[in-house]
Write the structure tokens for this entry.
Amino acid sequence: MKKMIFGALFATAAMLSAPSAFAQTVIKFSHVTTPDTPKGRGAEKFKELAEKYTDGQVKVEIFPNSQLYKDKEEMEALQLGAVQMLAPSLAKFGPLGVREFEVFDLPYIFPNKDALRRVTEGEVGRQLFAKLEPKGIKGLAYWDNGFKIMTANSPITKPEDFHGLKMRIQSSKVLDSQFRALGALPQVMAFSEVYQAMQTGVVDGSENTPSNVYTQNHYEVQKHGLESNHGYIGYAVIVNKPFWDGLPEDLRVQLEKALAESTEYANSVAQRDNNDALEAMKKSGRIDIQKPTPEATAAFRKALEPVYTEMSRRIGQGTIDAVLNAAQPDTTQPEGK
Ligand code: LMR
């Protein structure tokens, strides 16, 4: 009898530990925007391609719209291995101790997406990712969202209009400095909490990309908008490093291929998503979105200049200079789109 029980136990244990032909690797991908955003679409594309290229050996489970974790918690969850993949905005790496990423938040640092790409796809982009490795995180790709608009419940056409306004920001000291330079009162808040904070008057306004303002319905609780394009929001697609390094080589190669293609896809749909969102909000009649006059843009640029000096110690002047240099067009080559 005893022998039979041992035999059964042994067989069960062997079954559990033996690699089965159907063993599946699960990648939990948590993020905070809705599926119909540049990041949401990128994540869906990655799932589709990752599962296809690995013949179903990898399953990608996406948890959008802060369903699983909010901004700060998702970083902790990734480090603990509770999820394997995230795509936080570049403005959210400061609390992790990697302040250099906040360089992306400097006002007017990128005149256009070409300039941004020269940074993210070059040496600077690689060096920034290397800074994540001691934190147990591996950076795999940069995904676009777009340039930001301002929103508030009072007219905001010029810098003085921001005096005394409570503005929600992401957890970046550069964004804090930016709004203080305008005389506003910045408040760090998780993305998922912004709608309610706007509705109840906990904050007066915020800044975000049109696609985020639209898909989170912020435009329903904000009366005014300004197409200031004063800053950029993009993402770092990151994974738990021990998990990634522990994957069988053949699977990792297929996942890298899936990621390269989904990066191209996400970046190709981002601008359209933002244009569509802007148009839909204007059509809704719920929010009055203005373009700044050239004088107003000049005044915003001037008012925000001190942010560079104020933040140079935090980010590192070397990083700021490297980004400014890398962003310069190569005048020997024609400019791409
Ligand atoms: C925010 O927190 O404002 C956004 O950057 C969220 C996101 O991931 O786009």
Notes: The two ends are 76 Å apart (CA to CA). Residues 1-20 have pLDDT under 50 and may be disordered.
